[in-house]
Amino acid sequence: MDKNPPSPEPGSRGWRSSEDQPGTGPLIESYSQPDSGLSRYEGWALGTLNVLLLQGDEQAAQAAFDCLNAIEQRLSKFLPESDVSLLNSLGSSRPVTVGGELLELIRRSREAWELTGGVFDPTIGSLMRAWGLVDMVARTPDSNELSRLLESRGMDLVEIDPETQAVSFSRPEVSLDLGAIGKGYAADRISSLLEEKGVETGAMLSGRSTVLTWGLPPGEKTWQVEVCHPGNRDEALCRLSMQPGALSSSSAAERFLRAKGKTYGHILDPRDGLPTETIEGATIWTRQAALGDILSTTLFILGRDALGEGGCVEQLVKAWTPPGEEPRASIILAEKDSRSWGGIGWETFYIGEPGFVHSG
Predict the structure, then answer these.
(1) CATH, range 76-169
(2) pTM of the model as a whole
């Protein structure tokens, strides 16, 4: 990769987003049809469209969206009174008391940061702002700005007082962005809430990058899912028969910048502050959506280097596996391949029992 920051093409006004259009990420839209036996509900939160497909009543769906909106009020970087915004604003000058949800996400994020060698890093909020990924107006930070901001990233700069549980930053310009874990965390919370309310079967789609399912669709033994082609969002890369669980995808098709005749994705490599282009896309099945979001981001940055025995993916899956259960994850990496349709091929990797099988 050219290590000089890419400049937007002339006439380009900003990052282009396809996240909320058909054809990005894992799709289960067939279950939105009237004969599916599932009811569809939708609402906007966490900066994206969220869809619930439930074998349950409208009252349960309303409770789920109330919970989702409450999570947004506490964790959104776009709301000035949220815990995240207050911490980003004040954390470099004094300790800030935050809620239990944010504390849990900080602890989980630090664990992921350590196990991935800093590749998963929610402290890159200032880098994302420098690239225009907050206001979606494309810009190019120069090398001096990048060097300065790289000094203010790393979960070791986020400190939690063991007595008061207040959080502070040890350097200026540290800024949390929980976009790579927040949607998955919310999906996990929503599914738990709905199961407690007796909704035995359902799916939550958060944007087009995160899907969480529980139970089984009426009359079926698995969930039928399409993983979209990173190079053509109107086509399927592959089709899966999936067990209940989470499917998370990361690719440059979600949000991208065209510069120097190339397409750069919105996922930055925290190690150099530049848009990563190691592979074309990563999709992973896990038990928990938050873990899936962490791992799809990590895989998109590291590619095959994240895999293998003792690799960071295996370590994280083991760390999140409840005692007495088998570590499980199923992974699809999409990579450039001139021999494949659209110039992109894919390969599947498994940790433990497969969470899906290919169906087409």
Answers:
(1) 1.10.3980.10
(2) 0.91
